[in-house]
Amino acid sequence: MLDGVTRRYAVGGAAALDGLTVPVPGGACLVLLGPSGSGKSTALRLVAGLEPLDAGRVLLDGADLAGVPPERRRMAMLAQRPLLFGHLSVLDNVAFPHTVRGVPRRRAHADARARLDAVGLPGFERRRPGELSGGQQQRVALARALAAGPRVLLLDEPTTGLDTGARAEVHELLRRVRADLTLLLVTHDPVEAATLADRPGDRVAVLRDGLLQQHAPVGELYARPASLTVARLLGGRTEVPGTVRAGRHVSPLGALQLPVPVPAGPGVLVVRPELVELVPAGSGIAGTVAEVRVLGARALVTVAVAGAGGTARVHAEAPLGRQPAVGDPVGLRVPVDVRTVVPPSEDGERQQLP
Ligand SMILES: Nc1ncnc2c1ncn2[C@@H]1O[C@H](COP(=O)(O)OP(=O)(O)OP(=O)(O)O)[C@@H](O)[C@H]1O
């Protein structure tokens, strides 16, 4: 549990982390998601005990960790770069947490071998870290972290710098070894957040400028972002400014009924591209294809809609090969339940009710 956790690097300056309060239930995964400089790594260092708090408390199973040194917190960290000892063999790297505790060499090595098997690296014992790929090194670092017998695994951008295949391997491994470990993951990648925080109790805390923006299961962040910041961080593209009147969002798209009550006034309609349906011209909201961008197996189709008060741009997805062409007239269908209105300013309060 983080309770009002605050860190201010410069006296009188803005807080890098400002009163962060989020529960971290035992065995669950909490993701700290945010853009660069939002305070994610600071939070992780404070939890690990590597830096002092300026205010607040870090609690583990209800006990305040103030004054408990990092090595006695039963936490292990997997950093962005593996930070292995280059002069030691892979086996000795993994056995290191045992060695420093004085565990007899034979037992330490037996455990390290089992850990290497568990991360899919049997037979790599005698190699030096420099003889492994980046993904393999990260797996060794994970084996070493687990050898320390932590209750909490701190993951600081654990797959940044790895290629797609190695990333997927590390994600799969983390999901496999997770068991009842508590995970605290720092990332700027919503896909990584969604991949690792996929159990019922898992949550994502979105940070910006040291402040908590939203704390929710990842699916809710996608479906109901609380602000433009959250919508953009989750890869949202469509933002249609308008006005909320009598439960409808009024914009060039028309007067669209909203699924939940939203206070009247200015508001931005945000809709995920994968939830907008492209239908034949003549049905739905009439528009013209303004741009098509191929993204792997899908195409991102930008549709311009001219209506009362101006033009709106709405993004939709189509399977590759089935996308319309620039200039084609099309129809758009925006299902009622996927319409979310957020405040026009990034700093505004959430308007959408839960
Ligand atoms: N040791 C430090 N001394 C002074 N300022 C710091 C220090 N560490 C971080 N900061 C500042 O605190 C703020 C939050 O930094 P932090 O590293 O926690 O962000 P982050 O979200 O982890 O960013 P990134 O994704 O780039 O690592 C930033 O403005 C940063 O410049």
Automatic annotation (TrEMBL):
The record's InterPro entries line, in alphabetical order, gives: AAA+_ATPase (IPR003593), ABC_SmlMolc_Importer (IPR050093), ABC_transporter-like_ATP-bd (IPR003439), ABC_transporter-like_CS (IPR017871), Mo/tungstate-bd_C_term_dom (IPR008995), P-loop_NTPase (IPR027417), Transp-assoc_OB_typ2 (IPR013611)
A single GO cellular-component term on record: ATP-binding cassette (ABC) transporter complex
Record domain ABC transporter: where: 2-234
One Pfam family recorded for the sequence: TOBE_2
Name the keywords, alphabetized. Answer: ATP-binding, Nucleotide-binding, Transport
Q: Which GO terms describe its molecular function?
A: ATP binding; ATP hydrolysis activity; transmembrane transporter activity
- Tell me which SUPFAM superfamilies the record gives: MOP-like (SSF50331), P-loop containing nucleoside triphosphate hydrolases (SSF52540)
PANTHER family per record: SPERMIDINE/PUTRESCINE IMPORT ATP-BINDING PROTEIN POTA (PTHR42781), SPERMIDINE_PUTRESCINE IMPORT ATP-BINDING PROTEIN POTA (PTHR42781:SF4)
Full protein name = ABC transporter ATP-binding protein
